[in-house]
Specification:
heterodimer; A: alpha/beta; five-stranded mixed beta sheet; B: alpha/beta; six-stranded mixed beta sheet; 5 helices; 20% strand; elongated
Chain lengths: 202, 160
């Protein structure tokens, strides 16, 4: 007798709340996309005589089964690899590269076009180490390409855009610049600083 | 008789369930939208290494996945602890890669055959030997576009 019936909750707006949540999640969810380091394998062909490359144009990186690094016959830590690779690529030994800022050391690489990075790993090398090293070497190329992109980008109509951003914009459908021009700039930089990364298979 | 009835009146009002369908539909929609259909059930360990110089996998061109890693825990007693290759839903040998790639190619339109990217999802603890062998098999069948799928990480070694 003393207890009163609880008032009924008005559920009319429940649907609105549900839709609100639905729309919120719709807008905020991003479907995860795989990303990684793209590489291109060399085709198998019968090379009777390998191309002759001067020793000074080759930057050798060896990884042994204990995941230790040997760069140009000197042991090295992974964290120093990027700087060493940049120094090598940017060296400009024959002074033909107009945008290089390297030491112009006669004993190191002639120019970025001739410089080759050679990577050799043991079968027992850990995959994670291998990816870290690949990452550092790609980072070295990207660092130089970014610098070059900032130098020439402004005159081509893409100021304050580094190489990585240029590539991202090229793929982005929402980019509202001249994609043909952007593609040309990217191609030019790729040609000036080609990624010549060779892997040795035993 | 009236005694009992009075007690019932004092009970809780029934909960209005009119909006329950809305909530259920909301959940349904949410999962429909957010779910990525996994094509393969993983039978190998697959914790990816991290890198930062990465590019998004271009889904406009066709992608085939190759998984490499130790057999996962529930398969370990039967398949041992050595790293194995997984193609589609099953463990595979190196020699199966060639037929796998040709099957993937056969399913594609002709103009897309050459742009087939092979995404390598390799467990971080794997030895490079297996990966090297896989790469060699891919070279043999001329599937040269590969991508080492990695997790994203912060670049801690920036020089600029």
């Amino acid at each position: 007798m003393a207890k009163r019936a609880a008032p009924e909750v008005n559920a009319g707006s429940m649907a609105d709340i549900a839709f609100l949540l639905l729309i919120f999640f719709l807008v905020t969810t991003t479907i995860e996309k795989d990303s990684g380091i793209p590489r291109k394998l060399p085709p198998i062909e019968d090379v009777t005589e390998p191309p002759i490359i001067k020793q000074k144009n080759i930057f050798t990186v060896l990884v042994n089964k204990n995941n230790d690094l040997l760069v140009e016959d000197e042991p090295m830590e992974v964290k120093d690899l990027r700087a060493a690779a940049v120094d090598f690529l940017d060296n400009n030994g024959d002074r033909s590269c107009s945008f290089c800022k390297g030491k112009k050391d006669e004993k190191s690489s002639d120019n970025p076009d001739k410089a080759v990075i050679s990577l050799k790993n043991a079968r027992e090398t850990n995959y994670e180490t291998y990816i870290t090293i690949q990452n550092e070497l790609v980072a070295a190329y990207n660092q130089l390409r970014n610098r070059r992109a900032l130098e020439i980008g402004a005159s081509k109509g893409f100021p304050n855009m580094n190489f990585v951003q240029m590539q991202a914009n090229k793929k982005d459908v929402r980019f509202n610049g001249n994609k043909e021009k952007l593609k040309a700039v990217i191609e030019q930089i790729k040609k000036e600083i080609p990624q010549k990364l060779s892997e040795i298979v035993e | 008789m009236s005694k009992f009835k009075k007690k019932k009146d004092g009970g809780l009002a029934p909960i209005n369930t009119a909006s329950l369908p809305d909530i259920v539909f909301m959940l349904l929609f949410f999962f429909m939208v957010a779910t990525v259909m996994r094509e393969n059930t993983l039978k190998v360990a697959n914790s990816l290494p991290a890198a930062n110089q990465i590019e998004k996998l271009d889904k406009k061109s066709p992608v085939s996945y190759i998984y490499v890693g130790k057999p996962s825990d529930n398969y370990a007693p039967r398949y041992g602890k050595e790293a194995r290759i997984q193609l589609n839903d099953n463990y595979a040998d190196l020699k199966d890669i060639a037929s796998f790639i040709s099957a993937e190619r056969a399913a594609l339109r002709e103009e897309l055959v050459n742009s087939l990217t092979v995404a390598l999802k390799v467990d971080r603890k794997t030895n490079m030997g297996v990966v090297g062998d896989v790469k060699h098999e891919l070279r043999k069948v001329n599937a040269l576009k590969i991508n080492y799928i990695t997790a994203a990480s912060e670049d801690t070694n920036k020089a600029e």
